[in-house]
Amino acid sequence: MNRAPSIVVDKLLKRFGAFIAVNQVSFQVHAGEIFGLLGPNGSGKSTTIRMLCGLLTPTSGSATVVGFDVAHQAEETRQHIGYMSQKFSLYDDLTAIENLQFFGGLYGVKGRLLDERIAWAMKMSGLAGSEQLLTGELSGGWKQRLALGCAVLHRPQVLFLDEPTAGVDPLSRRQFWELIHQMSREGVTILVTTHYMDEAEYCNRLALIDAGQIVAMGAPSEIKQTAIRGDLLLIECSPLGGGLAAVKQAPGVIDASVFGAALHVVVSAGRQPVTELPAFLAAHDVRVGRIEPISPSLEDAFVSLTGGRALGADSSR
Amino acid sequence: MNLRRTAAMSRKEFIQILRDPRSLVIAVFLPLIQILMLGYGARLDANHIPVYVFDQEGSQDSQALLKAFQASPYFDVVTTVNNYRALVRAIDSDQAKLGIVIPWNFSQRLDDAGRTSVQALLDGTDDNSAQLAEGYAQAVVQTYAGNMQLDWFARYGLAQQAASPLSVDYRTWFNEDLESKNFIIPGTVALVMALMGALLSSLTIAREWERGTMEQLIATPVTAMEIMVGKLGPYLVIGLADAALCAMFSVGWFGVPFRGGLGAFFITTTLFLIVILGIGYMISVATRNQLGASQYALLVTMLPTAMLSGFAFPIDQMPAPIRAITYVVYSRYYVSALKRIFLSSAGLGDLVPEIVAMSIYAVVIGVFATRAFRKSLQ
């Protein structure tokens, strides 16, 4: 596999008035890699991807995609990339085939090749047999795979996916990621943004982005290992709020936050908090149900790196 | 400009027009409705003007004059009243547009002095109709007077002098019957083109923004120029088809003559459509909003075309400052060309000033339109 970087981003910055949406972001993505930008809504993921597709002009910094400068060679860049925007944006009043023909025409795919690619896209999206349905009548998963088909009709070297699975059912999401992996195996470089943890796990490498800045970068397993400085415990207790306040005072506790109906607590490595903490909490009128060590998730890593903000939160401040 | 991409754009736009009931109505039915409405409604001539008569004398002479009014196709003598107040009331209540008062000594003065007069009361709320009624009434009275003179000469054996020594024979060219429909209907083609072209083109870019399809579109290699040409091309074709439809309707249904060249008709229509579509497109780019865009587009295309193009209100009769403004109203050149193509047998050679003026507009608008849209989300 060719390991030359297909995407090189260097100190990219985007300012909207006084607001800095993307702040000095730098990363590289290698050919055939699946690279994820993980962060909450408003963290600058979409702005970054839009700059890389030449849809927004960077305020400063630079980026090249397959060797073309995205700010100055946008048209050349576009011939080599596929882009799926965050919102579904095919034409609802065209049939699936007509949408494919339209985008095939715009990308200069013609003749037999176009027929082949359309047949492939219809099969890939599971729409073979539904040629005459208007796109607006399709369900979410079909629409999304059709949009993917339109974006890769011209066999781009790089594929940009902005929140591709938003609003799609779990089965369709899994099918979608299988397609992405298949393309990656065929050498397509894929940059995907998401705020779903499970999807982030599918990426070869990730950049965690918060408030326009990259807070961690690496393989998902690396990020999880390095972000948590200690051991992670899950504690079910009641009351939850009182438990959180109390556990933060406990000896050896580095960080604690609420996850669903339980607490995730980071403690100094090597200590024995499973035995000590229940007693400490009981002394603070907190009843402990379950306490056990767990392996950290990306969510834990994210919360730990951003000082307590969860992915579901809006980081645009 | 890549032809394949432009063609893909046009094809998509055509499909969307065919599937969008609103666009279809604007493209097909609106022109027909408009030409029917304007063909029937926008008439400037007056027929069957209702007349009330107060005949104070009731003599043979006065009855003869009233017969002359009755015989005229322009007047309907609705009723005869027997006092002045009733006549005034009829005009006040809009039952009569013209009131005629024949004095009690009408025939006596005619015999004694050889000359007499009648009074005509006109409803001037619609000055155009009032002026027409006045003119027609004078014509009726003059004919009556002339006939009377001939009778008088004949009675006294002066037949030789019966004919006037000098008379003018009028012959009107281009609109022989001086029918206002022949004057107005050719201009309605311009109105139809302006309405249809502006409405449809103002939706093009705004629709992509509103439906969220723009982002995907500008992420492809298609250029701004290809988007514009690809999108407006179908509307140019539809516009030309509508123009042909309007012309056929004008001739076939309303009996307006079409004496000029088809080449001149389609070339001037193409130039006009380029201007209109370019304006609509620029507005669409600027507003990114279908409703706002269509309203602005109507304001800058329909309004000047209806008011300042000479379509119904002759430019020569406008005050000098307004007349000066009409020179920058692009539609005046098209309306002027249309009237001459329909009514006089104008060909391309006769329309050089109009074609030059419209070409300048088409080029200027075209240049601005190609620069209006930038492929960016900002």
Descriptive report:
The complex is a heterodimer of chains A (317) and B (378). Chain A folds into two domains: 5-223, Rossmann fold (3-Layer(aba) Sandwich), CATH 3.40.50.300; 229-295, 2-Layer Sandwich (Alpha-Beta Plaits). Chain A has eleven helices and 14 strands. With 317 residues, chain A is α/β, with parallel strands linked by helices. Chain A is elongated. By secondary structure, chain B is an alpha/beta fold. Chain B has 14 helices and four strands. Chain B has helices at 3-19, 21-41, 60-71, 84-92, 106-112, 127-155, 180-211, 214-218, 224-252, 262-287, 290-307, 320-326, 330-342, 352-372; strands spanning 49-55, 75-81, 98-102, 119-122. Chain B has a four-stranded mixed β-sheet, sandwiched between helices. The longest helix of chain B has 32 residues, at 180-211. Chain B is elongated. The mean pLDDT of chain B is 88.
- Order of helices and strands of chain B, N to C? HHEHEHEHEHHHHHHHHH
As an assembly, this protein is heterodimer
How big is the Rg of chain A? 23 Å
Taking strands numbered 1, 2, ... along the chain, how are they ordered across the largest sheet of chain B?
2-1-3-4
Largest sheet geometry of chain B: 4 strands, mixed
User: What is the arithmetic mean of pLDDT of chain B?
Assistant: 88
Using the alpha-carbon principal axes, give the shape of chain B.
elongated
Structural category of chain A: alpha/beta
Number of strands of chain A: 14
Helix content of chain A: 25-40%
Question: Which properties best describe this structure?
Answer:
heterodimer, A: 317 residues, alpha/beta, Rossmann fold, Alpha-Beta Plaits, 2 domains, six-stranded mixed sheet, four-stranded antiparallel sheet, 11 helices, 14 strands, B: 378 residues, abc type-2 transporter like fold, four-stranded mixed sheet, 14 helices, 4 strands, elongated
